[in-house]
Amino acid sequence: MEVVHTIGRRKTAVARVYLKEGNGTITVNKRELNDYFTTPTLQYKVQQPFGLVGAEGAFDVKVNVCGGGITGQAEAIRLAISRALCEVDAEHRAALKPEGLLTRDPRMVERKKFGQKKARKRFQFSKR
Question: With a threshold of 0.85, does the pTM exceed it?
Fold first, then answer.
């Protein structure tokens, strides 16, 4: 099997994933998954697509991710891995789609408006 390359995005994070058959090692920015994402919940998010399709330990994953925070990066990686698994075998789509792993989360940070402290927060009103 050749290498499958896909891209996942979330907020301002962009993840490029290279998936190939192997023994289940996940490398993020040339570091082990457990070193890069120290929180167990984020590690679970990254490995979630493999658990749903029953392919734990079947693929090696190499990830280049940039931008955003760690949560956005983890969810961008999850989307890219889900897309890659669908390219490998189209039948994986039936397991991933109902869980919402193939949908790009469109929510972005709202911009700050002039005359206000933040996007929605106003400056303190003073009557006198």
Answer: yes
- CA-nearest of 35, 85, 37 to 58 is 85
Q: At what angle do helices 70-88 and 40-53 cross, to 10 degrees?
A: 10
Mean pLDDT by 10 residues, the chain (128 residues): 91 95 93 94 93 89 94 95 92 91 94 96 93
For residue 47, how many other CB atoms are within 10 A of its CB? 18
Would residue 29 be called left, alpha or beta, if left means φ above 0 and alpha means ψ between -120 and 50 degrees?
A: left
Token couple for 123: 């400056």
**DSSP output for 51-75:** HHHT-TTSEEEEEEEESS-HHHHHH
Residue 85 to residue 55: CA distance in whole angstroms: 9
